[in-house]
Amino acid sequence: MPFLGERRLIIVHDFFSTAKKEELEALVSKVAETPDTTILVFFETTPLDKRLKTSKDLLKIATVKDFPILHKNNIPKWIINKAAQFDQTIDYHLATELGHQFSQNPERLDTEITKLCTYNAQTEITKEAIQAINTLPFHDSIFDLTDALTSTNKQNKLTILHNLYHRGEDLIRLLYMLINQIRLLTITHLVNSNFDKVAELKIHPFVQQKLKQQSRNITLPKLQQIYARLQYLDEAIKTGKIKTTKGNQQEILFALERLLFIA
After folding, report:
1. Of 6, 30, 53, 186, whose CA is between 20 and 30 Å from 250?
2. How far apart are CA 128 and CA 112, in angstroms?
3. Where are the domains of the chain?
4. What CA–CA distance (Å, rounded) separates 58 from 40?
5. Could you tell me which residues are beta bridge partners of residue 38?
6. Which CATH class is domain 72-133?
């Protein structure tokens, strides 16, 4: 009997892909004896072989649910369909941009879309609505900061950085995402004349377009100078020359200010 509840939930991971034949046969007979107070879930990362006798016997008393992987190319359509469940619409290109932000975390994407549709007062989801509900604060800012790095407006660079800081963004995380973005910009600059090579990078089309636009506004030597400075900051943090904690990011803030000022 369940303890302190009406039901007991038991989850078994990858049993069918690892169990021996006699274990599978023993399981089927036991599953039929499972009390109504117990919910038994078999979580399999590989497809169930429905040709096996044990599988056929189990399917007579069990319910099978498939949860296919959401591939990146299908994310925009999924977002559009998700919004439609709330009687709302979203532009395909905006859905692509939104999906790119959370493509590595489908659960977070589902939460963000639900939040957006719940609080959006209009029938159409716009970029202004997304920004107002603060769904894309961090990744948009990364592109803004990268754009600022390729410009000569020093005041704008510092303003973006301070806006991030005062919003409570983790500057260490910002630094490493910035390193990656500058690295991608450098690679894009090197292969920009060869579109086949750009495709080989296997970067999302939206990001590719951003990188191509930004690479036109900065020279390769300047990118290499910025990248070298970022490498120095990375080493300084890891060796303790720049001291930073979650509650005190003043030293890394000062270092990033200096980077933006000389970039």
Report:
1. 186
2. 15
3. 8-59, 72-133, 137-262
4. 12
5. 8
6. mainly alpha
